[in-house]
Amino acid sequence: MAETIISQANRAKQWDAEFFKEYVRANRFKRYMGTSTNDIIQVKNNLTKKKGDAITIPLVGALDADSGYNDGSTNLVGNEKALPNDGHRIQIGVVRDATVVNVEEEQASPFDVRNAGRDALKTLAMRYLRNDIIAALGSVNGIPWADATAAQRNTWNAANSDRVLYGADIGNFNATVSTALGNITAEQTLNKAMVSKLKRIAQNAVTVNGDGIRPYVYGEDEETFVLFVGTGPYRDLKLDLAQEHADARERGRNNPLFTGTTSLYWDGVVIREIPEILGLGGVGGEGAQVSPIYLCGAQALGVAWAMTTKTTTRKEDDYGFRHGVGFMELRGIEKIQWRQGESDAKDWGVVSGFVAAASDE
């Protein structure tokens, strides 16, 4: 009797699919990712079944309601309303890395080598995805904040003046980003009033014949925004909300005041701690430390995959002594913009904030 033996290729393929699912799940942004236009981070997998190096996410603005409707007294023919539309193109690129195990540490089998590096590669891929999402949130017209020139930052700042907040006061805004950051004083740390102000900015932001930045909708008609913040601003807000949590919530494991939870909630806004969102340094008034924060609505970011994560093995093995295992994927992550590539491009679903971060004392 001959028993069926599953080939190594089939085992590797099964492992690849599980690897992709696990590393995305481990990312703190995962709960905000989905394929719907309602999701904060919209995922597009179209290119996994097609050829191409980019994918365009269609953007459709709201029809103008201010001009009124046709009451039947005039012809509708010739008076139709144009549907505002645009598209954001996400460029796809290669993401890959690898590790090597020698024969003294692992059996000389491709499948065993893949399993040996599995946890390390899963964590590394997760970190790359997380870091790219953070970089996209802080990008200036597609350019990472750290790489953008002062002129490029100022151009982005001017176009997005209706969806940016420097410190606690809208009056801190200045056409020159460095000046606006310098207007942030050390006491302008993140607090509940600032969270509410960010929400109002999102609701009042100039959109194409619309009603502000579109929030994430859950349940029947509940709306919310998500505010991603670093450790310093999160700590400051938690302290500011301490009395509210003490007065309005039960004392126990479900109260953020007594736990190390990574989420807070205020005025219809979920505040999510992302420790890897780093500060900008002492660019505030009198050297105050400043950190960026990002209030996001629907379709704030776009993630496009042309090839989901697959494992790879090293061909050069030094006569069977060394065995390398790696991963590779084709994807792109960008902040969605209306009029992408133009000088007046607007961030589609993000309100950017900059706040002082209190010292650790």
Question: Could you give the topology of this structure?
Answer:
Layout (H helix, E strand, L loop, with lengths): L7 H18 L7 E2 L6 E4 L9 E7 L24 E7 L1 E10 L7 H7 L1 H20 L12 H10 L4 E3 L10 H6 L9 H13 L11 E3 L3 E8 L1 H10 L1 H7 L14 E4 L2 E5 L16 E7 L4 E13 L8 E14 L1 E2 L7 E2 L2 E7 L5
Parallel strand pairs: 1-2, 2-12, 6-16, 8-10
Antiparallel strand pairs: 3-4, 5-13, 7-8, 8-11, 9-10, 11-16, 12-13, 14-15
What distinguishing features does this structure have?
Major capsid protein gp5 fold; 7-stranded mixed sheet; 16 strands; 5-stranded mixed sheet; alpha/beta; DUF4043 family protein; ORF017-like; 2 domains
Brief characterization of the structure:
The chain is an alpha/beta fold and 361 residues long. 25% of the residues lie in helices and 27% in strands.
Characterise this structure:
This protein is an alpha/beta fold and 361 residues long. It has 2 domains: 9-36 and 44-61 and 85-135 and 301-338, Major capsid protein gp5 fold; 154-300 and 341-356, no CATH class. It has 8 helices and 16 strands. Strands 6, 7, 8, 9, 10, 11 and 16 form a 7-stranded mixed sheet that branches. The longest helix has 20 residues, at 118-137. The chain is globular, with a radius of gyration of 24 Å. This is DUF4043 family protein. Pfam families: Phage_capsid_3 (PF13252). It comes from Coralloluteibacterium thermophilum. InterPro entries: ORF017-like.
Q: Pairing-aware structural class of the strands and helices?
A: alpha/beta
| Secondary-structure element series | HEEEEEHHHEHHEEHHEEEEEEEE
Poorly predicted regions: none
Strand content: 25-35%
What is the β-strand count?
16
Gross geometry: globular
Overall structural domain count: 2
Largest sheet: 7 strands, mixed
- Gyration radius (Cα, Å) is 24 Å
Helix content: 25-40%
